[in-house]
Amino acid sequence: MKDREDKIKKVIVFFVMCFLSIITYLIYFNLFTADKIKYDSSNQRVIEEEKNTIRGMILDRYGEILAQTDKKGDRKYTYGSSFGNITGYISNKYGKSGVEAYYNNILLGREQFLGDIVDVFGILRQSVLGQKKIGDSVVLTIDSKLQNRIYNSFGDDKGAAVCINPKTGEILAMVSKPSVNPNKIDENFNEYSNDKEGKPFLNRALQEYYPPGSVFKIVTAAAALENIEEIDSYVNSCDGVLKVGDKSIKDYKEEKHGRVNLKNAFKVSCNNTFAKIGLKLGYDTLKNEAEKFLFNREIYIKDPYAKIKIKQALYDFKERDEYSVGISAIGQHEVKANPMTMALMTCAIANEGKIMQPYILDAIVSYKGNIKYKTKPEKLVDAIDLKTAETIKNYMILTVKEGTAKRARNSIQIAAKTGTAENAIGKEPHSWFVAFAPANNPQIVVVVVVENGGAGSGRALDIAKDAILNYLNR
Amino acid sequence: MMELEKKVLHSIYFVTFFLFFNLCFITGKIDLIPLIFCLSSIILISYSSFIIRKFYPKGDKFLFLISALLCQIGIVMIYRLDTRTQNFEIPRFALKQMTWFTIGITIFMIILFITPKMIRISRYKYLYIFIALSLLMSTLFIGREIKGSKNWIVIGSFSFQPSEIAKFFIILYLASALSKQINKKDLIETVIFMFLAIGFLVLEKDLGAALIFFGIYLVMLYIATSQGKYVALGLLAFSLGGFISYFLFSHVRIRVQIWLNPWKYKLDKGYQICQSLFAIASGGLFGRGLGLGYPYLIPLALNDFIFSAIAEEFGLIGASALIILYILLVYRGLRTAIYSKDYFSQLVAVGISSMLAFQVFVVIGGVTKMIPMTGITLPFVSYGGSSMLLNFLSLGVLYKISEGR
Amino acid sequence: MVRYVSTALKFIIIAIIYVIIFRIIRLMYIDLKRKGQLKEDMDLALEVLDAPENINISRGSIYPIRDSITIGRKEDNAIVIEDAYVSNYHARIILEDDIYIKDLDSTNGTYVNGKRVVRLTKISEGDLIEIGRITFKVI
Question: Which of C4, C36, C38 faces A124 most closely, judged by CB atoms?
Fold first, then answer.
C-alpha cells in the first residue's frame, strides 16, 4: 500500500509538471510569439478593431491636415497625389503604405503612452457616450506648402526631390513624381501597378537608384582635400578629353578648361581633373570617403516608432581598372545613389561636417491636441571635419557665383553643385542639383533629380531654386 | 476544515454572481436573463452541496466544488458566444449547457445513491470491455463524420460521442483486470484489448481520444504493476505506433504538419489553430474582459477551442487560473486514490483522475500549439452533453470512492 | 460602458478565483504536512499558530486529531512540547461526538480563546488554544 501511495504521488508530480509546462509555454508565447502574430493579415481582429476606431489624423509640421477620416469613415487626403509617397494610402483591398502603414499602431491608438493615464476621464466619457475609440494623430516634419510647390513645379517630368533641415535632420519635403493619388487607390490600383514606365508606387526619393554624376565630385573633392597633401598647389591642365587605356573620359562638349586647380575644377565641374584626382586617390580611398558620406551603409529614416529603410547607395564594384576608377570619381560607372543619400551628403557640407539622423515624425498628439511624444534631433555621424566642410562649402558658393550654377544666383546666397548623370544611351541624361541656403547659416538642403532632365542641371536647378526661395522668403 | 469548505463555497457563489452579472452588460443593453442563470446555478450548487454534506459528509467536497466552478466558467463563456449569433434573443447553447449541467449534477447524485460498494462492481471485467469495444466499433459502422473525425453517433436530433462513454468503461475494465494478482497472461489480455480500442479510435481519426486511452492505460499499469519497465515499453510502443501511423494515415501526417508550421496553412487546414493563437495573443496578460474580445472568430469556440476564448477575454492570468483549477481537481482525485480502501477503488480513482488530466493536457496543449491539435473537449467547460454526463458520472464514482464505501 | 464594467469585473472575478485556489492549496499544504498518515478521519487538526524559538515545535506544524490524546512535556504524550512552561501532562483532548479539552491540573493552565479551562470545555473549528507559550488553532 505504501508503495502504491508513493507511485500515486509520482503520478501527481507528473501531472502537475504537465500543467505547469503549459503555463510556462503560455507565458513564453505571450512574451515572444504573441506580438509577432497579433497583426497578421489573416487575423480578423485587426479589421474588426480598425472598424471600431476612428483613425488619427496625419498633420504637417504646422498642423495642417494631410489625411483624416470623415464622418462616413472614409479616409480623405487633402493634397492627394503630391503626398502620395508620404502619407501612403489605406485600402481594405490593397492594404496600407507609407505613413499609414508605418505609424498604423499610433493612428489606431494602440501605442500606450504614459500620459494616457491622465486622460482617464476623457476615455471614460468617450466610452459612456458610446463613442468610438479615437486614435492618435501623427505630426510630420513635412512642410506642406513646400512639398506641394516642388511637386507642382515638376510638371510632367519624372523625378524626385528631398528637402532637409541640415541642423536637425527634419525632412521638410520628399517628392516623388509620378505618384499615386491615395484618394482614388481602389479605382486606380490596377492602372498604377501596370504603369511600368512611371512606376507611381516607387518612392523615388528613397528607393530609386540614379548615378550621381558630377554631384559625386563633392565626395571626390573631400577625399582629395583629406588625402592629398600638396592639394593646395595642385594644378591640372584640362584639354577636354582624358585618355585612359583605350577609352576616354570626356568633358561636357569636350570643353577645354585649361589650367585649373581643385577649386576651379569644382566650380566648372571639370571631369578631366576629377578623373585624374580619382586615379591618384585610388579605389580604396574613394570608397572609404564615399562610406563617410553613407554610401554602402544601411540607413533609415528613424524614430522610436518606425524605421523606414533607405535604399543603400553604392560605391562598390568589381572591375577596378583605371577607366572604371577614374569614371567613378565623377559619379558614373557603377556608382549608385538615391536622392535621400545625396541630401544627407549635402547636409554634411552644410552642417560643419555632421550628418543628423533624418526623421519624418515630428510628434504624436492625442485627438485633443495633447502632445504625447516629440522627436529630438540626434546626430547620425561625423562625416568629415569642419575644415573640409568649409572648403567645399566655399567651392559650392563659388559654383553659384561664377560656375555651372550661375542661374541660381540670388540675393539669398545659395551654395550648390550641379550634376548630369549619363543614362541609357540615346536618352537625355538625368539632371541633378544639390544645394543649401543661406550659405552662411544653412536652413535648408535641397536635392532635386529630374529624370532625362538634360545636361547641366537645367530643370533640376529651376525647381530647387524656386523651392529655396519659396521656403526662405515666407 | 468545514469552515474552509464553506469559505470556498461562498467564493464560488461570488464568482458565479460576478460572471453572470458581467454578462448582463455585454450586449450593450441590460440583459436580465443571465441573472436567472446565475440564480439557478447558485441554487443548484448550494442544494447539492447541502445534500452532500448531509448524507455523504466524509467525501471530498472539493471534487464537487471545483467541478461546479469549472462548469460555471463554461456556461458563462458559452452564453457570451451565444450573444454573437444573429438576432440574439435567447442563449440557445448556454440554455442547453445549463440543462446538461443540471442533468450532470442529477447523475452525480444518483451515482451516490445507487452505487453499491465499489468492490462489488469489480467483478464484471468482460462486460465492461465488451461495452467499451462495441461502443467504439459502433461508430465505425453507423458513425457519422463531424469535424473530420468519424466518432459521432446521430440518433434523430440527438448526437453523442461513444468514445466518451467508452472511456469510462475502459477504466472500469482496467481497474477490475489489474486489481487482482496478475500474471503474464492477464497482462497480455489487457494489451490486446487496449490495442483494439486504440486501433478503432485511430481508424475513426479520433486521435485525441486514442492518446488519452493510451495515457490512462500506462498510468494504471504503472500503479498496478509497480514496474517502470512497462511504462518504458509502452512509451516505446507509442513512439513506434506514432511513427507508423504517421506514414500510414494522411490525417495523422496533416496534423503534424499543421503543428510544425500552422502559418503556412493559415487559410485552410491550419485556420482553426491560427485563429486560436490570434485569440490567445490578443488576450495578452490580463485579457480584454468579458464581451470585449472577438472569441467568436475562432472556429469551434464552443467546443474544443473554448480555452482560447477564455484566454482572449481573461488573459494569461485567467487561463492560468483555469489550469490551476484543473491541477487541483486532478490532485484531489489522486489524493482520493491514495486514501481509498481497496485496490479496485484505487485504480478506478487513478484512472478517472488521469483521464481528466490527460484530456485537459491534450486539449489545452493542442489549442495553444504546444502539441499537435486533436479535437477533444475540455472537461466541464466545453459545450457538449455526452462529455458533461460522462464527467459527472466519473465525478460521482470518484466522490463515492473518497467516501470510503 | 461595457468596457469599464467588464474590465473591472474581469479583475474581480480572476481575483476571487485565485482566492479559491489559494484556499484549496492551503488545504493541500496542510494535507502534505501530515505525511503518510493514512486516516480518513481528517476533520479536525491543531495548527501551531505561535511558538517560541528553540523548542521542538515550530510555527505552522499541524497535528491531526484522530483520537483522544494528551499534550505535555513527557515523551509519552501524543503531542510533546519541550517547554518549561508546560507541565508533564498538561491537557487532554477528548474526541467523542464532539471534541473537548480538559486541563490536567497543569501549573500554568490551559486557555481557550483567552479563557482558562476549568472543567471539560467543548472546542470547535477556529478556537485558539494556549498551552504554555504555544498557541494552537483548531482547524
Answer: C4
Asked if residue C86 has pLDDT above 60, the reply is yes
Q: How far is C75 from chain A (nearest CA, A)?
A: 27
Judged by CB atoms closer than 8 Å, whether chains meet at C40 and B404 is answered as yes
State residue B216's pLDDT score.
Answer: 93
Could you tell me which residues are beta bridge partners of residue B153?
B160
Q: Which residue of C has its CA nearest to B322?
A: C17
Fold classified for A207-359+377-472: Beta-lactamase (3.40.710)
Would you say A436 and A446 are in contact if contact means Cβ atoms under 8 Å apart? yes
pTM assigned to the model: 0.66
Predicted confidence (pLDDT) per residue in B41-84, tens digit: 999 999 999 998 888 888 888 999 999 999 999 999 999 998 88
Q: Give the ipTM.
A: 0.93
* Spatial contact of A351 and A166, defined as CB atoms under 8 Å apart: yes
Closest Cα in chain B, distance from residue C5 (Å): 7
Task: Please indicate, yes or no, whether residues B41 and B107 belong to a single structural domain of this protein.
Answer: yes
Best mutation target among C24, C32, C125, C139 (most B Cβ atoms within 10 Å) is C24
What per-residue confidence (pLDDT) applies to C38? 45
Note down the domain range covering B385: 121-264+305-403
Maximum mean pLDDT: which of B36-45, B265-274, C44-53, C108-117: B36-45
B284 in a structural domain: no
**Interface residues of chain C, partner chain A, Cβ below 8 Å:** 1-4, 36, 38
Establish if B150 belongs to a structural domain: yes
Domain boundary among B114, B145, B173: B114
The pLDDT value given to residue C39? 45
Residue B241: burial class (beta carbons within 10 Å; 0-12, 13-18, 19+): middle
User: Chains near C, with 3+ CB pairs < 8 A?
Assistant: A, B
* Residue ranges in chain A modelled with pLDDT below 50: none
What phi and psi values does residue A428 have, to the nearest 5 degrees? -60, 140
B interface residues, C as partner, C-beta within 8 Å: 1-4, 7-8, 11-12, 14-15, 18-19, 21-22, 25-26, 28, 58, 62, 66, 69, 286-292, 313-315, 317-318, 321, 324-325, 328, 331, 335, 338-339, 404
Closest residue in C to A131 (Cα) is C1
